[in-house]
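User: Before I run my own analysis I want an independent prediction to cross-check against. Here's the chain; please return only the structure tokens and, at the end, one sentence I can use as a sanity check.
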Amino acid sequence: MNRRDYLRSLAIGSVGFSVSPFESLTKGTSQENTDTLPAGKLKGDEIYPAAGYGTTTFLVADAAVIRRLENQLPSGFIPLPLQTLNADELVGRLAEGNALVWLGEPGNLPPALSVGGYVISDDELDIGVKSDSPILWPHLPLTRAKVMGAYIAPPKGMPYHNVDEEIRADFLPIWEAKDRFGNVVGYPAVYMNYFAPSLALGRFEGCECFFFFVHEPLKLMDEQQWKSILDQLDRKRRSFLQVTDFNTNYTAFYKKERVQLRVRLRNRNQRAVSVQFRFSIRYPDATDFQPLGLLRRVPEGRSSTEAIFDFVPRFQPGLCEVRLEVLQDVSKAELLAVDGNLEVIEVRYLAFKLAADQVNTSVNHEIVGPSFKIDGEEAFWAGTHYYPSSSWWEWVWRDYRPLKAEEDLAAIRKAGYRIIRVWINPVIDEQVLRSIDVAIEQAARNGIVVILTLFTQWVRQMGFQRDSGEQVLFDFRHPRDFNLISVSLRNLDLQREFISILASRWKNAGNLIYNLSNEVYIKDPDTSQMDKEVQDWEEVTMSRGTLRDSLLYKRWANVMTAVLRKAGSDQLVLPGYVFSTVDGGDVNVANADAPMVPWHNYYPAEHAGLKLQYLDPISFNKPILLEEFGYGEWNPTERYDGTAHYALAGGAAGAVSYEWGLSWLSKESCYWPLPLRETLVDDPDPRWFAPFADMARLMSDKGVGMCPTPSGTGYGSIYHGTPFPASAAVALGRLGLFGAGLQRVAAPETAYVVIPKAQLQAINTLDDTFRKLWENHVLFGVWQEDQLASLPDKVQVLICPHALGPEGTAVIERLRASGVSVFTDDTWVSSQLLDRVTVEAGGEGIRVVMRRTAKGMLLTAAVEQPVDQAVLAYSYEKVGMGLTDFGVVHLTKSGIPLVEGARKIYIGKRQFCDVESGRAIFATEQPDLLKAATVKLMVTQPTRITFQRTISQLCISDGFGHEHPIQGGFKGNVLTVDDQLARYVILVKFGKGRMG
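Assistant: Structure tokens:
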């Protein structure tokens, strides 16, 4: 399904079906009959009245499948042939609390149910029951089948909280599909448990949907086997029980603390029933669950019950898993004095951490000049934002689910990401802090660096709890402070207290980086917006303008960093990205004391390269990180791919996407008012951040939440509810998986572009200059104005398209007098002093971005229209390739160890390979691809690759550096990459023979 369609309204059109015994659910029936539809007759109707609440289960399948299953259906099932399904009517009945079994492909599935399907493979896959399935199935001889993967697919990408409908449901996998390599690649069957009414529209409470996305159901199992499935689901529905919540009071517990398990369960029956909860635990490193205990409850008719079970676990540090089994004798459930023959109705799992008193993880990163190292390796790194619930950071740490996060973080690492960025709640307490404890440690086990952001533009009030138990709430942003975004010059002492709590708690978290502010806009703050302490800062007395604003922010960041240091935290501290492109401060000045400069990009992909070069801190010998980038739709593959390539080309230490996507849906609506609406006043301050007022005008006063839209649904890059990356996440991950050795290095150049200090009006002029340099294939460096005195002696050309300040101008004139060529316009184009790449063929329209690496030169070619063959030559090296959009070449003195390109790829005069379709990236740890015994590669789509050497063995990598030999996929010198193999890093080992 086209995800752009999800940005439309929730209006659902009829999709159509064949003749149905449930007439109003077929196309062409009248609306007036919908209130008198029979509810169906269930087994044991003397106990379960036919008119009971939510008693009907609709089976939607192809008409031919229904004909084969018709005599096998439980009596409470209403079959609805897919060919004439009336989707609106079906949604209406499900909204009342009835149930659905969907058997077949999901193409006509009503979007309102918030479930979709994606193609896992064109081939059949191995199907099995997931180990933590919420439904216990009888033994089912599942075989290979063609299936699709289910995932959470909200009908609207960016709904407004409390205005548009948002589903509240648990997405619980039932079956898993494995590819031919034995790895789980999708969930073809899931249970969608709508545990509460949808937000805004209040629909679907009590509804349960079971989706089986099987291409040919009766090829997978025969009628009797499907009958056993349907009977099990019928028993689940006839129990009238629905688990609506299962959690613990904390996600981490210390030695001798009591763990509290809380279960909430709804009884849809009109009368009271009995039910038992059985709890068991699996300790870290154990293989089996051990019994914990039983609780019995009798929920009244049409009501809920809560059971709380607490215990002191055996202390064994690590992640503990708890299993809840709901037991009932369905036929005797209303006989409250007896238990009967209890059977498991459904199962749930959760996890918590048995933890030491303080987080203690190894230091896994450091900064060396302009390079960022992780686990001792220098590379270009991929990363992502991780807010696994639709409620963003303001609620996620109060509903953090370690079991699901464990799966997510392993998948994040496997996808090639080594950085995650998260935000802390604006109001912190022990529940919030323990959840972040667990997340930090889970990330560390997967070799992931955590960037924790403290202050954001979305909050007005913040808070914390003192050791005395006192809860402190303070204004971070006054209602008239919209010229100060993500920074506050009020209540500094309370900000210090807030930070000191974190610093003391996480001073031994070696995989943690602090990011003080998310996105900073600082514009001419006055003394009425400042504490007395701030008013005494020398920066306050400076002339108003960008320089003063930037230095004020720098001073504030130093004050906050000092709090961390005083508490014993020696982690890296990044002050924050500054809105330089909208006149909100100079990011380099503001981060002058920082070890690394962060920047964000929501412009088109090329701007990642343009702005990186404008903000380039190489003259300060520090790295720059694309800390946040994205695009407002689900799975924007071209934007992710393009932005990552421009970030790599321009020398970023890494690229961190916004964002991974949803792992679970929020339990409740956000609870903060919309703070941006405070900009809607009759007398807006001209200093205010104008985009906020534009955004606020789109927000209803009925909305809620610091940000009015959910996390993930508009910006995500996974199949929500699963750990499986979609194409956008894969595109970014490819460069992360192949980034070793491509890190930025400081090296003298013959030509530099000079960036004026704190003159943000120069940005557009510099953008034009950089574009022309790329189009003319020029090798150049960037130097900031206030570092001109330390320019390398090698410089021969300076390009200064915008006027500098007095001191910078004086330095330029001295250099001009010493013989350096200085250009203030585009006449540099004809200069013979410039170092250039020669594009020998197909040069028209090709941009080339060049930069140094530790062992050589990285060339990135970009085109808007495909080029069949382009030849890039530099020094004595030459590479030819086709270009679909991007091409990358790593030139070293020892050879060419990395190429990304399309079609026929030549290294020097020798052909390396021929890529039949799409683009492929090839790399080797040896000096040169032509001579390498092993080449690793990834492709953008299924393809055939013909090498000039004989293939002897094929392996795949699991993303953690482990190789797994595989059979098939190659013959002679031809590698066939199908849609299953295309997901992996492929390692091709060559024999001694050379083809052709």
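Sanity check: The chain has five domains: 3-238, 245-354, 365-737, 751-830, 837-994.
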